[in-house]
Amino acid sequence: MKDDQYSGLEFLEQPSEMEMSRRDFFKTAGAGIYVLFTIGDSLVSWQERQGIPQRSTPTDFNAFLKIGEDGRIACYTGKIEMGQGVVTSLGQMLADELDAEVESVDMVMGDTDLCPWDMGTFGSMSTRIFGPALRTAGAEARYVLLELGSEHLKIPVEQLTTANGFVIDKTKKENRVSYAQLVKGKKIERHPTGKVSVKKPSEFKIMNKSLTRRDSEEKVTGKAKYAGDIRLPGMLYAKVLRPPAHGSKLLDADISEAKEVEGVQVIKEGDFIAVLHKYPDVAESSLSKIKAKFDVPKSDIDDKNIFDHLLKVAPEGKVVAKEGDLQAGQNGAKATVEATYFNDYVAHSPIEPHTAIAQVEGNKATVWASTQNPFTAKEEVARELGFASQNVRVITPFVGGGFGGKTRNLQIVEAARLSKMTGKPVQVAYTREEEFFFDAFRPAAIVKIKSGITDRGKINFWDYHVYFAGERGAQHFYDIPNHCTTVYNSSWVGAAGSHPFATGPWRAPGNNTNTFARESQIEMMAAKAGVDPVEFRLQNLTDKKMIRVLKTAAEKFGWKPMKGPSGQGFGVACGIDAGTYVASIAHVEVNKTTGMVQVKRVVCAQDMGLVINPEGATIQMEGCITMGLGYALSEKVVFKGGEILTSNFDTYEIPRFSWLPKIETVIIENKDADPQGGGEPAIVTMGAVVANAIYDAVGVRLFQLPMTSDRIKEALKKT
Amino acid sequence: MTERIRFKLNGQPVELTTDSERMLLWVLRTDLGLTGTKFGCGESFCGACTVLVDDLAVRSCATPLKNVQDKGVTTIEGLAKGGKLHPLQKAFVEHDALQCGYCTPGMIMNAFSVLKKHPHPTVAEIIEGMDDNFCRCGAHNRIIQAIQVAAKEMERGN
Ligand code: FES
Ligand code: FES
């Protein structure tokens, strides 16, 4: 596996040690067959190379599966379900390897007491890194069952097979024994030996077949529990006093009036002030009775001048790819294109705001939380309360969307702190305003590109500089003899003094910005060369996978060669993310008077290797395309210094029904290749594909995301 | 003002004495323990808190309790009858019209109201009726399909 598939991942928090040792685990485990496994040796070696301490990945095991006496199969993992559908796809893998029904597989996820340590759910890793390990474990368990079956039926293993939860004599089908029967009264531990092979694609019965979500029924009836839906006796709802801006200091607070409200409890510890009540709405209205004065630091940085500021404070660049000689390339170029691209800060905005409920009893804490990294939360709570970490349990119910944003766990720590102080269970749930205020935004970023073409329409040099977006997706995949890619601030977290507030990973971190810049630049060169944009890409590509993906998209779209701008409103963009190759083609309409863009149709082709659940993968692609419309067209955080002026959906517009284009997706059949990421790739092309289509429609190029109607009108005016 | 409020909740009479200016959302979720109705924005923008009052969609985060005095309130928990999913719920499941599922109760309740107004809806009518309900996961196109299928199913009297 190539290194770059992991780039952009970051391990901000390291757990102190593996919490659940094998021995502890077996003391409490009941009867069953247990296969203990570790995910991704490749991940461990990657961490080694990055200088990440080894203890962060348990050498022992960090997931296991169990076949119980009832014949049910359970997978215990610290990963979580936030809509991406892993409850379904991981279940499919296990059921297929074990020749069992999907319905007999239970996924036990994100509970730090029941599941072994996991670093978190992000980076499109569940399927591509966890998946193969899970399948190997499943295959191992099947082999154990065959051995047990052989003993039980007194038939050699070679003569046995498995189907529907039974070990069966190949020569005499009625000679069979169920998994449940075989497991009864036994306790068997295995680690994958590597000797048992997983199924070949031709043997799949459940994998690579579409399956609808397994969690829908709970979700359409209102039964599905999210963190905020947990009810505990005596629970209080807390509202915490917030500063008007990041970096503010509380000078003075008068809590007397809030205290008067019947049933209200006010907590004040230093500048941490919270109002608690048995009703959340009463807590909130009482909070507004607190008169607080803050010292707000002065700052002239706002969403308009942030880019100048960032360029000024940018750290030294790091060359991440280089070949040939840029100067020689430039000398040989017939035409050059030089451009600077920008994108504003973007929020995650899951519809479920950050929420947590904590119950501290004695020296033990139990927390229910909406989080993408429960094991990190556990450490954070332990540290805050001064508890041993084995005394903290974090349970992750359904998560109402994450997109990278639910890796910060401030609300969890606050709930735990308040529960300890009051001796009661406490819920902290963000309002929408708090959700915007505390979000670790996708960073504002700048990309500068200078590139050139020969008279034969070949790109002969490419000088690429990206500031603050991060490294993921910065490297191009075109065939360019002289090129250099320089990254300034390679993480989504900015160097000190750069961003006025927190920034963090946002669905396909870095890659949205990088793909927007690269694919806009490519299209500008195509126009300069007077070559059709699809044709131009093809003549500058040697990567067979990308060529196939692009041709597939073009064919599905019914692409006819054209010279841009053609007035039709068609645009193309390609990208690679999390090992998956994507090509998108869009059709847009632009209203020249209002500057409004309507995306009419998006065709997206993707090569993601082996697909476990094609239906699930398609849904993820649709989700990416839809969410991507927002950062392309409207989403932008408005701020002044540390003051976040964006506070709700009236000013922060996320995609709605009337924006939706017709979406057509194609997943390229590639069963024999390893599975790659699915939850992020298709979103990376959305900025560029819309920008290129706008250019084709009205002949103006937008260099900044989002391409709001005002910016489009402005650009039209200039021509 | 503390008042005695009576209304029908999912067909059952309820009575409570509380400040009648409190928003229905919080009363449902806390006092009455029905957590299917979700909080998303608290200011009428997102639709996650949508419930039916006399079969019409309202945003419970902005509906004071006094507004439902003597009325009928239906939440997502009250839609399935006798263990049988409502055609909208069934269609959402069959079309995978959800991902994280957090917007789903509000989507379904709002769709119910749209279909009351337009029993034979065009796609344009569905889009217009649903446009102020937000989904961050991007299930929109599938939700539209599910509503169309449910409308046909309901026409058949199911
Ligand atoms: S929570 Fe009521 S509309 Fe958003
Ligand atoms: S399914 Fe997640 S917000 Fe709609």
Task: Describe this protein's structure.
The complex is a heterodimer of chains A (719) and B (158). Chain A has 3 domains: 22-207, 2-Layer Sandwich (Aldehyde Oxidoreductase, domain 4); 229-296 and 354-429, Aldehyde Oxidoreductase, domain 4; 314-346 and 441-717, Aldehyde Oxidoreductase, domain 4, CATH 3.30.365.10. In chain A, 29% of the residues lie in helices and 23% in strands. In chain A, the strands form 7 sheets. A 7-stranded mixed sheet of chain A has the order 11-12-9-19-16-17-18, with helices on both faces. Chain A has a 6-stranded mixed sheet with strand order 14-22-21-20-15-29, sandwiched between helices. A 5-stranded mixed sheet of chain A has the order 4-3-2-1-8. The longest helix of chain A is centred in the first third of the chain and has 29 residues, at 125-153. In chain B, strand 1 and strand 2 (12-19) form a beta hairpin. In chain B, helix 2 packs across helix 5 (140-155) and helix 3 crosses helix 4 (123-130). By secondary structure, chain B is of the alpha+beta class. Chain B has helices at 24-31, 87-94, 104-117, 123-130, 140-155, and strands at 2-9, 12-19, 50-53, 56-59, 72-74. Chain B folds into 2 domains: 2-78, Ubiquitin-like (UB roll), CATH 3.10.20; 87-155, DNA polymerase, domain 1 (Orthogonal Bundle), CATH 1.10.150.120. The mean pLDDT of chain B is 97. The interface between A and B is large, with 58 and 58 residues. The complex binds FE2/S2 (inorganic) cluster (2 copies). One FE2/S2 (inorganic) cluster is lined by residues 39-42, 44-49, 59, 61 of chain B.
